[in-house]
What does this fold into?
Amino acid sequence: MNTLITLAIVVGVFIIILLIVIGLYNSLVRKKIDTENAWAQIDVQLKRRYDLIPNLVETVKGYASHERETLEGVIQARNQAVQITSDAAHAGQKAEAENMLTQALGRLFALSEAYPDLKANENFAALQEELTSTENRLGFARQHYNDTVARYQEALQTFPSNIIAAVFNFEKREYFELEPSSEAREAPKVSFS
It folds into this structure.
């Protein structure tokens, strides 16, 4: 009779531990999926940005064709950003390429000050507004992604989920951060004056 009670206690404890492990594992999986989903939202905005840039460059070419170096810099920065694998595991590399692209776009928008006809062009203004809107959406998506990464990282590092994370090889995620320079942190400016 005692062995039956002992066996029942051991089985009960085993079942409780198993349920805890399953719960922790599922929680880590949900957090990992959340980070991947948040990254997908960043990716959507980045692709939208990439699609707008060639139209913007073509519009500027018509007014400032001798500003070839600036235009080529924007296209080169865009192409480099597009080539980097777009997944959460490469967020750091992607952020670096996006910083370069943002700086190149800033130089492109500075051209509009030197060319009043370009500044007055409706197509240029519409593209500039669309790009600014995309930059804002990208900022919100980046913030959401970094928040989900923080929750995931916290789960990977706290006990007892850190044990489950190590056993099942859950990998850390990088934050998608801009460099500290104020130029990279500013969205391109839209000026209608």
User: Anything to note?
Assistant: The CA atoms of residues 108 and 155 lie 43 Å apart.
